[in-house]
Amino acid sequence: MEDLLNLRDLADPLDNNGVKPDKKTDEEWTKMNRKTIAQIRQWIDHSVFHHVAQEQSAYTLWEKLGSMYQAKTARNKTLLMRRLVNHKLRGGISVSEHTSQFQDLVNQLSTTGWVLKDEEQAILLLSSLPDSWETLVVTLSNSAPNGKVTMQMVTDALMNKEARRKEAGIEQSYAFVSETSRRGGGRNGGRSRGRGRGQSQNRGNSQVRGRSQERGMSCENKTWFEGYCNYCSNYGHRKRDCRKFLRE
Description:
Elements: H1 2-7, H2 12-15, H3 26-41, H4 46-52, H5 58-86, H6 95-111, H7 118-127, H8 134-143, H9 151-193, H10 195-223, H11 243-247
């Protein structure tokens, strides 16, 4: 607003604290004062307009608005920080939606003059995760370089975690469909070859699948690590599994 008044040469009533300079006539000063008031009122919110509708001095109007908006800013800070602290990742909300809503609150808070540091944002985002994410929270906190977590670290870890959960869900769904299909085939075949043989084959297949799934889980647990490599500092594996370390 001040920039706009300066651009239109209407800032003198504010710069001079409402006192007319000697170089201006009473008529010039009154005209400028009215123009400044009109310009300011164009940008006043309707909720506060009636509080200053009768002001005849641009400087008095400006000071009154300043005190009102400072009080409003203090309330906004409190409300926004409360919303930010209470912002939690809930079921049915994706990580990308959650982080987007979180960043929107951070941006709103910054417009009030309260700018959170990157580490503070990262800690608040970690605190917004439910108990089921506790392992990730502890791992990130313990493996953070120099003991400081960053927003980049947290968002990357959250996106990777969600991607792995989705992949696991797809694999489980595929395995369920495949198993259901095989059971159906076993029942149909049992009518021609005998029910006992079909049941025996199904039990054998289940045991083989069980061992294969155990090996897959063991391999996944071995290669994936919810933390940072001590060699290359990348997220997701230990030093002993680091490709860069093994190549060198």
